[in-house]
Design a protein that fits this description.
The chain contains 8 helices and 7 strands; from the N terminus they run αβββαβαβααββααα. By secondary structure, the protein is of the alpha+beta class. It has one domain: Class II aldolase/adducin N-terminal domain (L-fuculose-1-phosphate Aldolase). A hairpin with a 6-residue loop joins strand 1 and strand 2 (about 40-45).
Length: about 240
């Protein structure tokens, strides 16, 4: 049996999977998690499943060492989530995406920067995790263990988003709606920045102060985006039974 708080977290997490697929941040791959509201040394994440297929019954409780008592297969990259939660007590939700809009900024010398007020949380330049610095040039680029997850968390630092070279990105937030919004708007910001470069060969980024002010203003309106995206994804606002 789950408490009301745990049920709400599960429902938000399931909705987040479907919203992120609808917004083309996730497809058959990628994942999203939420810190357990009553057991902060654990987090909730789907079993190994395409995000668009996730239901309440697919959610697993996972410890920060990556273990779970659920016998169903888990995501290989659960360590990515675990180590971010371990390093960042302020983080309560994590999104990992393979966005084709973000990858170019992970493999070029052009930094991803906030160029749009909706992505002010990106700051001056998004950090890039280079897996070769940890395991050399022969990996599959996946976060397969706690050591790699910890190194990614180090690169993320206290920022909202980190790129993963040739792989994708992670976005974090203090809630599921905030992490989802950051993933969506980071992706759209990347598209806008790339388009500006194609048009002029250069672009005007937000100042750090503009980004901070815009992020604060937008965080006050997260409910508007979250409820809109849930409705677009066909997710009911009413509580669904979770056995």
């Amino acid at each position: 049996m789950h408490t009301d708080a745990a049920l709400d977290a599960i429902h938000d997490l399931v909705d987040a999977n479907h919203v992120l697929v609808r917004r083309e941040i996730l497809d058959a791959f990628g994942h999203v998690s939420v810190r357990h509201p009553e057991s902060p040394e654990t987090f909730l994440i789907s079993r190994n499943l395409a995000p668009g297929l996730v239901t309440d019954h697919d959610i697993q409780v996972t410890a920060l060492d990556g273990t779970t008592t659920d016998m169903r297969p888990s995501y290989l990259e659960r360590f990515l989530h675990a180590e971010i939660y371990r390093a960042r007590p302020d983080v309560h939700a994590v999104v990992h995406s393979h966005s084709a809009s973000m990858v170019p900024f992970s493999i070029s010398r052009t930094p991803l920067r906030a160029v749009w007020h909706m992505a002010g949380f990106l700051g001056d330049a998004v950090p890039v995790f280079e897996i070769r610095d940890t395991v050399g040039a022969g990996s599959d680029l996946l976060i397969r263990d706690a050591a790699l997850g910890a190194r990614l968390a180090d690169v993320l630092g206290d920022t909202a988003v980190a790129l993963m070279r040739g792989h994708g990105f992670v976005a974090v937030g203090g809630s599921v709606p905030q992490a989802v919004a950051r993933a969506v708007y980071a992706d759209l910001n990347a598209r806008a920045q790339a388009t500006a470069i194609q048009l002029l060969g250069d672009y005007t980024a937000l100042t750090i102060e503009e980004g901070e002010a815009a992020a604060e203003a937008n965080d006050g309106q997260l409910g508007r985006a979250w409820e809109t995206w849930r409705a677009e994804a066909g997710r009911s606002r009413t509580r669904r039974a979770c056995e």
